[in-house]
Amino acid sequence: MSDGAPIGEPPGVESVGHRRAWPAPRGGEPPRAGSLKEARAALAAAQAELLAALVAGGAVPEGFDRTRIEAQTQSLAAKRRRLVARVMPELGTALGAEFPRLFAAYAEGRPPPGRVRTDAEHFAAWLRERGQLPEEHASVVRQVWWRRLWRRAS
């Protein structure tokens, strides 16, 4: 290695006798023992802010490239849309070419609920509330959902 670290050591780590000397974190001195709780809380807040920017329409946190965050946000939304279409293909059939536009409107500012099936059900309910899912398709979506539920139970 060119940085003088022994083989098997990460870059920036030097052996001092039998102990490893880790480099100080960026920005100066290592954290004090009493500030560990504060550091964890600050990290959790920063992660929540980044997650909100990626999936819930939150503001892009300071220090991040807005263009890259927006690209990643679009990629995650497309992945979410594909998963919902895979779990409940009847929605894609019912909506046709309007599916991507309507799903984008539904998902904007609304974080995923945790399970794809739940997301698909919420999307179908959102469509019904707005009158954008014709009744003949709404009944098919409900029938398929009950059929799947029945198969899982038996």
TrEMBL record:
Cross-referenced InterPro entries: SCO6045-like_C
SCO6045-like C-terminal domain sequence ranges: 44-129
Location of the region described as Disordered in the Swiss-Prot/TrEMBL record: 1-36
One Pfam family linked to the record: SCO6045_C
Comp. bias (Low complexity): 22-34
Record's protein name: SCO6045-like C-terminal domain-containing protein
